[in-house]
Specification:
Bound molecules: tryptophan, iron/sulfur cluster
Number of domains: 3
CATH class of the largest domain: Alpha Beta
Strand content: 5-15%
Strand order of the largest sheet: 1-2-3
Largest sheet: 3 strands, parallel
CATH superfamily of the largest domain: HUPs
Structural class: mainly alpha
Length: 400
């Protein structure tokens, strides 16, 4: 019914690193060729935990957008914007808050987890409890059906689905919905109508999701339906209401595990990162001084790549023959560790070269970045307002 749309956001918490590149940004760059994409800076979400240190958010936001652009996110393909510059997100968050049971928020697993993890900070706040609801508003306001996120965010997407369902259930009613839906079914033609009814029954009685998907495909293909009828038939599949908000699906990025300099996952909190736009000198130095297999004390001691973080980098960056050279050379003490690190250093520098180049233009002329964002915010607001019109009407605050 509604067009495919991808949306994702990132909190501006500091310089991005190669873990973000391999885990998230490479995927965004691919998606922007495949779908209409919206990518935004979740500055309000940053404020839920950084409310007592607001001075960093704005600068982090601009740097992060440059990191995105450096990585190849293309503003002529994707819409890039800043959450707080599209205040409609806050309006939807507020309206959704009216119908969100407190228990749903308290039960989101990240709530207690994060509170415990950041125990030095008082996070028993209204805003922090509402974090997943604000995220739901971010997604639902664009009727985005695909949300690329990591594993840790899946509960938030699931929460968004439940909120959309509840909203549609509460407000998606028309006085004569059922009658109108039945009339619309007939318009599918006898054969299709029969199949639609069968799939609907399957889904409603057995919760069979493949039946639901097949019914969606059927509606997708049906040519002669008005927008209204199509919406009704989508809604009718799942219940007895019109679909105003769209239930999103998580687009799980297959976890490209980028190792950090110490072999653990690359992460700011482990202090083991290489920044996306780190200088070549610094990259070289960091890799040169990387820990290797502790058993290789002397050059003549054989080693085991499995016990060496440098090997993890080869797995990300090296081709088969290089990897064989490492395996063989390390185990036989045929190569030294510095020698072994060279191809890794070269590969990281090569990966970063175009990023530095792309970033330079934006560093030289910050107005370019401001304009990209201003443009993106304007486009995002238009889309957001399309949904908000329906939402305001649904909750009875239309005032026309
Ligand atoms: N909570 C997400 C994170 O920490 C960021 C985020 C905010 C987001 N709103 C979103 C991600 C909407 C996807 C969609 O990573
Ligand atoms: Fe690690 Fe390479 Fe040294 Fe082996 S030779 S210990 S894989 S750096």
């Amino acid at each position: 019914m509604y067009a495919e749309r991808v949306l994702s956001g990132m909190r501006p918490t500091g310089r991005l690193h190669l873990g973000h590149y391999h885990g998230v940004l490479k995927n965004w760059v691919k998606l922007q060729n495949e779908y209409p994409c919206l990518f935004f800076v979740a500055d309000w979400h940053a404020l839920t935990t950084a409310y007592d240190e607001p001075g960093t958010i704005e600068n982090n936001a601009w740097e992060m957008v440059i990191d995105w652009l450096a990585a190849g996110v293309d503003p002529s393909q994707a819409t890039l914007f800043i959450q707080s510059r599209v205040p409609e997100h806050a309006e939807l968050h507020l309206l959704l808050s009216m119908m969100t049971p407190l228990g749903w928020l308290e039960r989101v697993p990240t709530y207690k987890d994060q509170q415990e993890k950041l125990e030095h900070k008082d996070l028993s706040t209204y805003g922090f409890l509402g974090y997943p609801l604000l995220q739901s508003a971010d997604i639902l306001i664009y009727r985005a059906n695909r949300v690329p996120v990591g594993e840790d965010q899946v509960p938030h997407i699931e929460f968004s689905r439940e909120i959309a369902r509840r909203f549609n259930h509460l407000y998606g009613r028309e006085a004569d919905f059922e009658e109108k839906a039945r009339t619309a079914v007939k318009k599918l033609g006898a054969k299709r109508a029969k199949l639609y009814e069968e799939l609907r029954t399957h889904f409603q009685q057995e919760g069979d999701h493949t039946a639901l998907e097949r019914a969606h495909a059927l509606l997708e293909e049906a040519q002669n339906l008005s927008m209204g009828d199509r919406e009704r038939l989508f809604g009718f599949l799942e219940g007895s209401s019109k679909m105003i908000l769209v239930e999103p699906d998580a687009l799980l990025t297959e976890a490209a595990k980028m190792p950090g300099l110490d072999g653990q996952k690359m992460s700011k909190s482990y202090n083991n990162t290489i920044a996306l736009r780190e200088s070549a000198d610094s990259v070289t130095k960091k890799i040169r001084t990387m820990q290797t297999d502790p058993a290789r004390v002397r050059r003549t001691d054989p080693g085991d790549p499995e016990r060496c973080p440098v090997w993890q980098f080869h797995l990300v960056y090296s081709d088969e023959s290089t990897k064989q050279w490492v395996q063989q050379g390390c185990r036989s003490a045929g190569i030294g560790c510095i020698e072994c690190k060279h191809p890794v250093i070269d590969a990281v520098l090569k990966e970063q070269e175009p990023m530095h180049e792309r970033a330079q233009a934006y560093i030289d002329d910050p107005a370019l970045v401001r304009n990209i964002i201003a443009d993106g915010c304007e486009r995002a607001r238009k889309l957001a307002n399309e949904t908000m019109r329906d939402v305001r009407e649904a909750v009875g605050l239309n005032y026309t």
